[in-house]
Amino acid sequence: DAGITQSPRHKVTETGTPVTLRCHQTENHRYMYWYRQDPGHGLRLIHYSYGVKDTDKGEVSDGYSVSRSKTEDFLLTLESATSSQTSVYFCATRPLAGGLETQYFGPGTRLLVL
Amino acid sequence: DQQVKQNSPSLSVQEGRISILNCDYTNSMFDYFLWYKKYPAEGPTFLISISSIKDKNEDGRFTVFLNKSAKHLSLHIVPSQPGDSAVYFCAASEGDGGIYFGSGTKLNVKP
To answer: Rounded CA gap, B101 and B88, in Å?
Structure first.
């Protein structure tokens, strides 16, 4: 457990509204990631960060933006939520010197867009 | 199109027997493979990994086999225990890029 918390844990929102999910870590890990998990697709990378203010797109980044102003926080924003963004969102962190096996996942946020 | 595939959505095994979970991939540039275990309402946790320069890695009851020519890997759990019941994700990576996950296999170990 790398001290990763996600908030909120559950959220119901309406189409067209903005939504921000927060990932907070206490381990001072350099890398942070946002994934979404959907039936039949496993986990897919949305965005990742390799340092404060350094972010890059993942496999399914359309409709999402991220920000990392502090080492410990990585925010995922849906500017205008759509029903296709209903999913379970997982944050993950990894230390600079660690291999991929040292990527730790948070407990997830379940988002429902009506 | 998914680069990592787990074609069996579920698997049921008797306690004490062997569980074999399979995974196929399409990208020949993948050089590192991982298995994760996931319980409901929790994030995935790392289980075991293997580099593309090896064909087998063992950790206690868990063994991962890699067949590069077939682009296939498998996870063996021997003996299976009820606590092993979870969803297992296969994942692959190329260099220091992102991790590509399969869709998961739900393992049920019956007492």
So the answer is: 10
Q: What residues in chain A have per-residue pLDDT under 50?
A: none
Dump pLDDT digits (tens) for B13-63.
999 999 999 999 999 999 999 999 999 989 999 999 999 999 999 999 999
Q: Which residues of A touch B (CB under 8 A)?
A: 4, 33, 35, 39-45, 48, 58-59, 90, 92, 99-108
Query: pLDDT of B64-97, one tens digit each?
Result: 999 999 999 999 999 999 999 999 999 998 876 6
3 state SS of B82:
helix
B64 - beta bridge partners? Answer: B57, B75
> Cβ A105–B44 below 8 Å, yes or no?
yes
Q: What is the 3-state secondary structure (H, E, C) of B53-72?
A: CCCEEEECCEEEEEECCCCE
Residue pair B61/B79 in contact (Cβ under 8 Å)? The answer is yes
**What amino acid occupies position B78?**
V
Write out the two tokens for A54.
């350094």
